[in-house]
Amino acid sequence: MKNEIGSLGATELLELIFVYLAEVSSRRNYDEVIELLASMGKALSSADRCSVWIVSDDKRTIKTKVAQGIAPIELPIDSGIVGESIVNGTRYIIDDVYKDERFNRYIDEKTGYTTRSMMVIPMYDYNENVIGAFQVINRQGNGGIFDNRDMERLTLATTYAAETIVSAKLTQEIEETQREVVFTMGAVGESRSKETGNHVKRVAEYSKLLALKYGLSKKEAELLKQASPMHDIGKVAIPDSILNKNGRFNEDERKIMDTHAQLGFDILQGSERKLLKAAAIVAHQHHEKYDGSGYPQGLIGEDIHIYGRITAIADVFDALGSDRVYKKAWDDERIIELFKEEKGKHFDPTLLDIFFENIEQFYAIRDTFKDEYKYVEEKINKTRNIKVLGAYGTKAKGFGTTSFSLNKTDVIDAGNLLEALGEESIHVKNIWLTHQHLDHIVDIAYIIDNYFGIRKDTINILGTKGTIDAIKKHFLNDEVWPDFSKIKLPNGEHVVKYTEIELGHEYKISENESIRAFDTEHTDSSCGYIYTREDSSILITADTGDLDSAIEEIEKDNSIQTVVLECSFPNELENLAIESKHLTPKMLFESLKNVKRKDFQLYINHIKPTFILQIAQEIEENKGFFTPKLVKDGDFLQF
């Protein structure tokens, strides 16, 4: 679910943040908290090292509060790339620091460490003054280059660290840090749906104002303000294809989307902390309606907690007044008219009267926290990536099965071509199959059926002899589905032809692209692929219960920059995994202990959707020195 806030999958990202949140919550020492946040920044951005720089009180120097791998350092405030970032308040992604004249080589020369790539983000206090910077160096995997996804992830750690530093200077307490962590975690849910962090800020402020006007104590109103940003945290488990759909949901999509309230509650309910208990209530009940027509429980009237009734007004008011991927913002007159119609239906009538009586104060909050978009240059390698059309190990609502788009005409496997490509599937000419199981071949049938009349080119189905024979005998056989090798397109070309591939042979796709297959162990004839473009390669195994052949390829081919491996079942189903020749997190990382190379980016796919959260947690527990990322439908994998 690579659904890369990108590189880290949304679920994996949430799991990682919660691990650090638990650690931060247990610490009372300011220095320990900063060190934890530096480790989180390193993990989130897949960096080798992370340093936290602080501006001195006289603003003449900068010094490291945390400097992984080196002793503390103090330098003039304008020194090097970090100094320029702090002085100018600018974010930087540097691919090769030795080609940048601003780079201060003093530290490398002193320590013997070689810095290659770098990313720097300035930290701000409440008054937008720069107080320091987060610096990560030497991206692990991804060709050693940081990109905009890494920048987004590091921003999370930077935000937490800035708040921690400010809080420590003011009170030497970390409660504000914990609250800011919760706030930013709420923003993670919104950022996945392409909304801004200002949405959760506005909802928080609206909720506090309405709570005070209703008569809640200052302490309880402040608690609700801190908890309300978590109202949509369950969105991290909703597939991007649904969350960011440009248009209305169909019935099935709406059912999936509506699960986010229960998912958010499930994530938060286990905590004994007052803040997270309040957040669990808000997440669970902010879509309940006063007349009982809401979800997920259908609560009526004051059976809905006051936190849920308040947040419902705050959330809907902001959602209607903001641009979203599926609509333009409503004008105020239209919003007020709807609210009047929903009095006693959607909204608590008493709270709504209070809202109307104080509407100018709500407008003032909205104006204070307007959405502002800052352009950050995206340095993603546009020429060496493939798109994930389907990432999962079985079909489920909102989850596609295995398929990768290499370019406009070539795909690996055909589990999710029709939904992902639509009419663009008419351009697919070569389907490179890993094996013949249904979740890897099913859409061969459907892209032919749906676009038979406008397709111009023959589909070349490529695979091992065993795979080709199985498809001819059991699938496209005039019994299960027509034998399309006998049928011609309207232009006279055959619909389908078959090509048996030779393991180890390099097949030329274009002037700068090639692909070769290697043997894998599964319950049927199977292979993995190494796809190469411009001398850089990505390895994909698909289904396998044994990584020996993949490891052999990785060790002998240094062009392999990215590796995609399967992990289908949680550790508790190891017997099933062994029998079906799949992997669990424990089995996967036990095998990878034998890998000598550590300079490739590891992605994990083919997870069964039912076990996403469990497998994500077990991957985190078993990963060792790797920084794996869970693949989602729609992700782009760089290599």
TrEMBL record:
<dbReference type="InterPro" id="IPR037522">
    <property type="entry name" value="HD_GYP_dom"/>
</dbReference>
<dbReference type="Pfam" id="PF01590">
    <property type="entry name" value="GAF"/>
</dbReference>
<dbReference type="InterPro" id="IPR003018">
    <property type="entry name" value="GAF"/>
</dbReference>
<protein>
    <submittedName>
        <fullName>HD domain-containing protein</fullName>
    </submittedName>
</protein>
<feature type="domain" description="HD">
    <location>
        <begin position="196"/>
        <end position="320"/>
    </location>
</feature>
<dbReference type="InterPro" id="IPR006674">
    <property type="entry name" value="HD_domain"/>
</dbReference>
<dbReference type="InterPro" id="IPR036866">
    <property type="entry name" value="RibonucZ/Hydroxyglut_hydro"/>
</dbReference>
<dbReference type="GO" id="GO:0004115">
    <property type="term" value="F:3',5'-cyclic-AMP phosphodiesterase activity"/>
</dbReference>
<dbReference type="InterPro" id="IPR052020">
    <property type="entry name" value="Cyclic_di-GMP/3'3'-cGAMP_PDE"/>
</dbReference>
<dbReference type="Pfam" id="PF02112">
    <property type="entry name" value="PDEase_II"/>
</dbReference>
<dbReference type="GO" id="GO:0006198">
    <property type="term" value="P:cAMP catabolic process"/>
</dbReference>
<dbReference type="InterPro" id="IPR029016">
    <property type="entry name" value="GAF-like_dom_sf"/>
</dbReference>
<dbReference type="InterPro" id="IPR000396">
    <property type="entry name" value="Pdiesterase2"/>
</dbReference>
<feature type="domain" description="HD-GYP">
    <location>
        <begin position="174"/>
        <end position="371"/>
    </location>
</feature>
<dbReference type="InterPro" id="IPR001279">
    <property type="entry name" value="Metallo-B-lactamas"/>
</dbReference>
<dbReference type="Pfam" id="PF13487">
    <property type="entry name" value="HD_5"/>
</dbReference>
<dbReference type="InterPro" id="IPR003607">
    <property type="entry name" value="HD/PDEase_dom"/>
</dbReference>
